[in-house]
Every structure is written in C-alpha cells, then in structure tokens.
Amino acid sequence: MKTRSLIPPTNGSPEANQSRAKRRRCTALAVFGVLLLALAACKSPEARLYDVSAGDTLKLGDALSRFKETRIVLVGEHHTDERHHANQLAVIRALHEAGVEVAVVMEMFRAETQPQLDRWVGGEMSEADFEKVYWDNWNYPWKLYRGILRYAREQGIPVVGLNVARGITRQVAREGFASLTAAQRGQLPPITCAVDRTYMEFIKRAYGAHSHGQMNFTNFCEAQLVWDTAMATYAAAYLRDHPRRVMVIAAGTGHVWKGGIPRQLEQYTKLPHLVILPEIEGSVTPGSISRKDADFIFLAP
What we know:
- The structure is a single chain.
- This protein is of the alpha/beta class.
- The chain is built from 12 helices and 8 strands.
- The chain has helices spanning 14-42, 60-68, 82-97, 114-121, 127-137, 143-155, 166-175, 182-185, 197-210, 217-241, 253-256, 261-265; strands at 48-51, 56-59, 72-77, 102-110, 159-163, 246-252, 273-278, 296-298.
- Strands 2-1-8-7-3-6-4-5 form an 8-stranded mixed beta sheet, sandwiched between helices.
C-alpha cells in the first residue's frame, strides 16, 4: 500500500522550485508584518493634555518641561476610574525617567502611616502585608492604585501619606471644627467654611452625595477644608525637608481643584505648582474651566 508523503515534492524545474521558495519567503514576511502592525496597535498612545491658558492640545512629553520647572504637580482623579490612575502614573514615570527626583504624595494614606510606607518602598514589606496597610487607610480596590505603588517601590521613589486621622474629619463633619481639642488640631489653623464660588459648588455636590442626613452643611464644609488644609500642611513640610524633590500629589479631583489643596498650599509655601484635572464629561472639558480652576486637562482617549 502506498503512503502519502507530508512533505511536498521538490522535483520539477529549477525555476519552479525558486518560485515556490520565493512564495514561502513572501508569506513569512507578510505574517511578520502583520505581527508588527498588531504590536504597534497594542501600544498605548501617549497621553494628551489640554493647556487651559493657551487653548492648545499637546502630548505629555511636550508638557514635561513645564512640569520640571515646578515643585508640585497635583493630578486629580475619580477614585474608581482606572484611566485617571494611569494618568497619574504617566506623570510620575515621565518625570522620573527625565531624571527628576520625584516624591509620590497621596491622599489615600494617613501621615501617621509613613513608617509603613517607607518600609514598602524600601522592600522591607511583602505586597500581602502592605495591602493590609492600604485597606486600613483606604476603601477603594487595591488594584486601582497597585500600579503606582509598585512603580514607586521598583524605582525607589518615596511615597508620602497626606491625610489626617480619620477620626478627626469624622468628628468635624458631625460636630464642627470647634469641637476639636488642641491636641487634635495640632498644626491646623482655625478653619471656617470660607471658599470661592466654584469650590463651594463642589462642596455642595459632595454634601449631597455623602451627608445622608447625618450632618449639617457647615460642619461638612469644615471637614472638607480640614482635609485640604492638613494635606497642604504635610506637603509643605515635606518640601521644606526635601528641597530637591518634585512632588506629584495624587488626590480626588475636588481636592486638587485650585480652590482646594492649592489654595491652602499658598498659605504655607510660595513654591510653584501645577494642577492637572482629568476630563470629565459635563464638568471638566476644554473650554469649560479657566486658569483659576486648573492648568491642564488630561484628555480622555
């Protein structure tokens, strides 16, 4: 019984054999070309920013010179939006790769947890143990912030906690700033609900989403300002102790807005700062805000 060979016959004229070989080479090159195109398509495009003052759109790399000239870059987020955290990491990475000494400063951690943050960056704590520290400080999914925190650890970039003890803001929200003891107030100045119109509108929206009938508006507003003021105080103190660092502050959009942390920062330091807000349909878009609100908008893909 005859069996078929799985190898195609190579007999025939030299011209025919050369033609078959050429077709095989062309097929291989075509497949390779398709793979290259697929890889190119999978590569994430460089983030784009809208310059609020100039009214221009530019790539992140083109804005880097502006970032390097400042000492504080505030990058806002909606806590549950992965794109916003990718934007924050893009800024941190771009500055670090440009040779800038960066510090990652985060709303998500209380200042009192700084020893654990230092151990994490120093490689002295496992991810499983550090995740417990994270959950003790914040209540949004770990995976949203893991990329930033892993990159800081891998590159030896300091991570700094900005927040006050949760009991303080909770007490102010329920009983007002005047209810705090001198020990609780620490370095905080007297705080009243006095903000500009734009920031007041944000606080009212936040109050509607969080109050649940358990606190009056004035107390809620004071709690918001305690948060902003404390973060500004800790940030200014860190910069005084680390004069070579450029600080990238990751915090909620409401806090990053120029009426929030930046307004309080001006009470403690004259160092230059920039505010980048994420594009948010209906509230933060090119043309909808001014330089009084932010310097750049991270455009949605």
